[in-house]
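Worked Example 4.2. Consider the chain below.
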Amino acid sequence: MDQMQSLTPILLDFQYSVCAYTFSSGGNGWTAWWNLPEATVTSSAVYHNYCSSRLSIVRILIRMFPSFIRFVQCLRRYRDLGNPRDHLSNAAKYFLSLVAIGSSTVLAVTEVHYYPDQLRYNNPMFYIWILLSFLSTLYGYYWDVRKDWGLFEPKAEVKYLREELVYDSKWYYYGAMGTDLLLRFSWAIALSITENRYVSADIMLTVTAPLEIGR
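Applying the procedure from the previous section yields the following structure tokens:
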């Protein structure tokens, strides 16, 4: 299920393909349920904008599904095994991810009140979404490095690493820690680039999606 989180862009592409094909085949009547009421389709609507809308119920569920399943699994493990607090800590990571996705949806719903584009930054939800996404990403990075990799041992002989190292060079580990941090925050880098209109969001997604799978 963790791997499915990295594959979410592929699942969203599949949803887009089904939606666009159905829409172009005259299925607008039954595809209307895919989107929240705010995402209405006009005669001038483009398939891309409709089928890839952040208000799409199906896309929201696809984005939330892996984190929700992992969240429930962690709670189940905590219940079954008694008192291993690591399972609750792990559940908190996925809960933060769900909250960040939820805030993104609320942002998409409220953005209609903050057009034209230059008024978007007056929307308080924009900053709430940034904050929640930052906290979720930072906690996920901490879990990668400290829990999954066992690094940052306070009493380790090699600073910030662990007692037993598989690779001879410590720079493999420092490099992995730095790369993981960069890739974890690739969404923030992509946001900065697309918001300044240097590159389109679709091109950035083409770049960042494979990087996330590689991470």
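The two ends are 15 Å apart (CA to CA). Residues 56 and 143 are 30 Å apart (CA to CA). Compare this with Example 4.1 before moving on.
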